[in-house]
Amino acid sequence: MLVAKLGRPNPPITDIGLPLDTEYADHIDFNDEDEENLRTLLPLATEILKEWNLSVNEDKTDFTHVYLASKCEKYDTGKPVAGNELWRKSITLGSMLCSKEDISRRISLGYAAFSRYQKAWTSKIPLNKRLLLYEALVVSVMMYNSCCWAASKSVLNKLDVVHRRHLRSILNYVFPNIISNENLYRRCNTEPLSVRVKRNLWRMLGHVLRGPEDCPAYTSLVLAINTLQYPGRVGRPQSNLFTLLKHDLSNQDIFLKILNDLLYLRNLAFNKVLWRSMQYNSFFVCFWERLDYSVVNLLTICNLEL
């Protein structure tokens, strides 16, 4: 009914592959380059959903303008807008849109969770049981939605530092008693969280490639490839998840230049044994210093909570 009233395509994907609607459980995102279209859609969506005995939670409904500010833009306080845009701290499905900001938030939540169960870490519970508790109660908090992160190595290193600090506390290693990072991981039978993040990213990429061709994640890949023909932003080339993924895949003689290359990669992903072997041969480090939407420089997202 929304498609009929607003003239939105069905399926909700533009000609160049931009997903217009994304849904997960009771969460719906409507995307558009024009905010007025979304302002018009909101009351219509509220009216139509009532016919299905569903209500829109207006307290959790917000409009997020995703864009890259110029270097000359500043807030009233004098703080530069570039790199501090409001959308970076916008939360969708429990995660901030900016991976750097989201990881900082996850680190804070991890510290809070670790402190909440402080008595467990210093108790006489066997070490292997304490480590299991730590994985379930703390690591799960810090690694939430890590499969969607696109962060620089320096940002992921902060996550590893916090992880090692927790492990040393559980093992009761305090100055002047020391233990090397390598021995610490071996003693706890674990690995750096940054390695898990890379593995989760690779697994999620496989899930996306094996999923339906009209799912928003896959159509976003199509959008990225379709916009390669357009000139990018003026200035230093921007680093993002897609460009670094292309660079990493090129080390295995896989190039993403046209849609046929994406179909080839999709066929590889359906071979799960081969895909798992590729993840160990080529972990890619993702950077989210800046976005580069090429043609789609202005994207407005309307988040609806039912």
Radius of gyration: 22 Å
Major beta sheet, specifics? 4 strands, antiparallel
Portion of residues in beta strands equals 5-15%
Tally of separate helices: 12
First-last Cα distance: 17 Å
Secondary-structure-based class equals alpha+beta
Structural summary, described in words:
The structure is a single chain. This protein has helices at 2-6, 35-50, 99-116, 118-121, 127-142, 153-170, 181-188, 193-210, 216-226, 241-250, 259-270, 272-281; strands at 21-24, 27-32, 57-66, 91-92, 95-96, 299-305. The chain has 306 residues and is an alpha+beta fold. Strands 1-2-6-3 form a 4-stranded antiparallel sheet, covered by helices on one side. Strands 4-5 form a two-stranded antiparallel ribbon. A hairpin with a 2-residue loop joins strand 4 and strand 5. It is globular. It starts with a helix and ends with a strand.
In short:
This protein has 306 residues and is an alpha+beta fold.
List keywords for this structure.
12 helices, single chain, two-stranded antiparallel ribbon, 306 residues, 6 strands, alpha+beta, disordered C terminus, 4-stranded antiparallel sheet
SSE blueprint and pairings:
Elements: H1 2-6, E1 21-24, E2 27-32, H2 35-50, E3 57-66, E4 91-92, E5 95-96, H3 99-116, H4 118-121, H5 127-142, H6 153-170, H7 181-188, H8 193-210, H9 216-226, H10 241-250, H11 259-270, H12 272-281, E6 299-305
Antiparallel strand pairs: 1-2, 2-6, 3-6, 4-5
Helix pairs in contact: 3-5, 3-6, 5-6, 8-11, 8-12
